[in-house]
Design goal:
Layout lengths: L2 H12 L21 E4 L2 E4 L8 E4 L17 H4 L1 H28 L2 H9 L4 E7 H4 L17 H12 L3 E8 L34 H20 L6 E5 L13 H17 L4 E4 L24 E6 L10 H16 L7 E5 L6 H15 L2 E4 L16 E3 L1 H5 L1 H4 L8 H8 L9 E3 L8 H13 L2
Parallel strand pairs: 3-4, 3-10, 4-5, 5-6, 6-7, 7-8, 8-9, 9-10
Antiparallel strand pairs: 1-2, 11-12
Helix pairs in contact: 3-13, 7-8, 9-10, 10-14
Length: 452
């Protein structure tokens, strides 16, 4: 694939109207939590009480990933963006929107907020993408006189707050995809030996499509920041999830755009915490103020890291804890002077003891944390990726359990995605060998910390 062709493909996937002015909204829910802020490297609420954010991710709700959300097919079929385009082509806009509304209403219900509250969690990180709020792409309806449709985010934030839970708004997928990975909604294949940024054009300074997609992403964040301007139930704005193209390290190229986003948001909203997520460690993001680049991220800033020890060769409890402690120490050694967070992690090879001691490590060192993730639907019912897991594939087989976007009828898709409710009989709490559930490990560890 040549450069011009790859640019054209991304353009066809990302065409949209130009952004128009968004009037600030007094967006508040009936339930109101104390507004959070950063002061002297600590998260405080408006009552000047220290807050440690402890929770999980609503992974799969607004950005589907095939391996965890009952979708079959290749990335070209089953990733969020192409799957939506298939639904539009096969069923039309109205029915495609019905499919997505049905999926959301079943994947996440009030019971899920109740479950989080029972574990003592006070935050949920909500991955979303441009499709979630930009009606240009017909996944959500166009509201009269409005450029963006914030209904989905509004309702989630409001419902979480009713249960005492803050929401972190996490932009997981941008226009054109900022990382080319499936969890951005669009896998972009890069031929071996090719220049990655000729394909993942979001970061390419010489590609007009990439420049336009960055502009639209900035304007999206400005609109979000304006809309939730006075909403205290939003803990923070998570600018970009894992922004390195195809998992590469973040560098000055990315930091310059971080700075653009920071300054644009601060023009309209100084209330909310802005959360920076580098790939992957402390050496991949500069100090917020003491840096040679002129960045001055001095207001309500948090740094968040993602660390999966099994990718670093951790195959047992000892190696897992050693590697997780290494990352915590590495970041803390940078003396960033801002709150730090482990925004994504799991413990694949550490067992019950590994989970308990990982959470205690974060608590003792003052790290905010959100595990990846709340629930998964995988071919492996013993997977510890989710607090809740599913036996659907084992019960029904792959053909019947998974949605096949190109061949399943509208009714079949509705029927299959009706099974995604957490209270479905095929869902269960992940349990360790002694029968203790991950749910109870999180509940007891958070409660013990809160009782101190």
């Amino acid at each position: 694939m040549n450069k011009i062709t790859s640019y054209t493909i991304v353009l066809l996937l990302t065409i949209s109207f130009f952004w128009t002015a968004c009037v600030p909204s007094n967006n508040k829910s009936n339930a109101s939590l104390p507004m959070l802020r950063v002061e002297n490297g600590i998260v405080l609420n408006e009552n000047n009480e220290k807050v440690l954010l402890q929770g999980t991710n609503a992974g799969g709700l607004l950005v589907t990933e095939r391996w965890m959300t009952l979708v079959g097919g290749t990335p070209a079929v089953g990733d969020n963006v192409p799957m939506h385009n298939i639904f539009l082509e096969r069923f039309g806009t109205e029915k495609a929107q019905q499919i997505w509304q049905h999926y959301r209403e079943n994947f996440w219900t009030e019971q899920d907020f109740i479950n989080l509250a029972e574990m003592g969690m006070n935050v949920i990180r909500l991955p979303f993408m441009h499709l979630t709020i930009d009606p240009t792409f017909n996944q959500v309806p166009q509201l009269s006189g409005e450029k963006f449709n914030f209904t989905i985010l509004e309702e989630f934030v409001a419902e979480a707050a009713k249960h005492g839970i803050y929401t972190i708004l996490d932009l997981h997928g941008t226009y054109g995809s900022h990382n080319g990975q499936d969890h951005s909604g669009l896998t972009i294949n890069v031929p071996q030996g090719a220049n990655v940024m000729d394909y993942v054009t979001f970061w390419n300074p010489d590609c007009p499509i990439g420049t336009e997609n960055r502009r639209k992403t900035t304007e999206l964040w400005v609109a979000v920041a304006q809309h939730f301007y006075e909403n205290p139930n939003v803990a923070g704005f998570y600018l970009l999830n894992e922004p390195g193209e195809k998992g590469r390290l973040t560098t000055l190229l990315h930091w310059n755009y971080f700075n653009e986003l920071y300054e644009a948001i601060r023009e309209v909203n100084r209330h909310h915490i802005i959360i920076f997520n580098p790939c992957w460690g402390g050496g991949d993001i500069p100090h917020p103020t003491n840096n040679p680049y002129g960045f001055n991220w001095d207001t309500n800033v948090m740094y968040s890291f993602h660390h999966y020890t099994h990718y670093n060769g951790a195959t047992n409890y000892e190696l897992h804890m050693e590697n997780m402690l290494w990352r915590v120490n590495e970041v803390e050694g940078r003396n960033f002077g801002v709150p730090v967070m482990m925004g994504e992690f799991t413990v694949l090879h550490g067992g019950l003891k590994g989970w308990k001691n990982t959470l205690r490590l974060f608590q003792e060192r003052g790290w905010h944390w959100t595990s990846w993730t709340y629930k998964v639907y995988t071919n492996n019912s013993s997977s510890v990726w989710g607090i809740f897991n599913s036996r659907l594939v084992q019960e029904y087989g792959i053909e019947e359990a998974l949605v096949h976007p190109q061949t399943d009828s509208f009714d079949d898709i509705i029927r299959k995605w009706s099974r995604t409710r957490t209270d479905n009989e095929n869902m269960f709490k992940f349990a360790f060998s002694d029968g203790t559930t991950l749910f109870d490990v999180m509940k007891s560890t958070i409660n013990e910390f809160d009782a101190q």
